Backbone:
């Protein structure tokens, strides 16, 4: 009697995915910390975090953690399920942000602040590719977006634009900083994320056949943790594809 096929190389993939997850989250927080130090503007959610920090006396990283936890609570009514990456995101990004701000001297000269901003945006793209490719679940803010997309039937583009416009305006009203860095981030993060998602993609595990050799049939499975990004059914071919390939990129 032949043995059922089983995934081969799963342990190695899990180890690599965990390294990518935590390296990506720490680098993500560090890149936002560098953007804060440049003083040239922040991504929309971090404009809100900065505004909250100025009114509460919290550090911007702590404000990010608190905001992430509140957003995670909003997952309950829309029936989103967090993954390991979701919970880790809430804590680690804010901690890395504060640590980077504390360790990095604030440059006064514009000639230093502009390269610092450019470096931060590139590193943010690298971080995005690392932790999303690990497939341990979306960040709390992107989970809110995908959940609202599912329950409202509105397009991802419309939902994301509405959320980011709301948090940007709220952050500005609270005294957060938007500027050229906000625009550079908005224009650059999509192409950079797409590039580094390819660079850091984790190969799918192949099931092992009864004789111990990797199977090449259609039964090949993908090592994907529960609670990872949603998938859409392709009506034409019956294939599944990660939703970010449709034009949206999971970031936070």
Residues:
């Amino acid at each position: 009697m032949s043995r059922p096929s089983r995934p081969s190389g799963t342990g190695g993939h899990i180890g690599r995915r965990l390294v990518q997850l935590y390296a990506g989250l720490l680098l993500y927080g560090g890149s936002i910390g560098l953007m804060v130090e440049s003083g040239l503007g922040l991504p929309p959610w971090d404009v809100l975090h900065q505004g909250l920090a100025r009114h509460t006396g919290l550090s911007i990283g702590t404000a990010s953690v608190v905001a992430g936890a509140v957003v995670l609570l909003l997952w309950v009514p829309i029936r989103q399920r967090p993954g390991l990456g979701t919970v880790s995101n809430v804590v680690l990004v804010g901690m890395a942000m504060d640590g980077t701000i504390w360790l990095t001297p604030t440059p006064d000269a514009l000639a230093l602040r502009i390269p610092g901003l450019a470096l931060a945006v590139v590193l943010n793209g690298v971080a995005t590719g690392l932790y999303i490719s690990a497939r341990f679940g979306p960040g709390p803010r992107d989970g809110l977006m995908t959940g609202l997309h599912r329950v409202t039937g509105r397009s991802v583009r419309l939902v994301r634009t509405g959320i980011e416009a709301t948090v940007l305006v709220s952050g500005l009203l609270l005294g957060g900083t938007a500027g050229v860095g906000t625009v550079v981030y908005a224009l650059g993060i999509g192409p950079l994320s797409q590039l580094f998602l390819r660079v850091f993609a984790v190969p799918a595990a192949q099931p092992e056949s009864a004789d111990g050799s990797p199977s090449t049939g259609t039964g090949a499975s993908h090592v994907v943790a529960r609670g990872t990004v949603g998938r859409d059914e392709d009506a034409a071919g019956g294939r599944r594809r990660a939703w970010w390939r449709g034009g949206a990129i999971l970031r936070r």
Q: What stands out?
A: The longest helix spans residues 10-38.
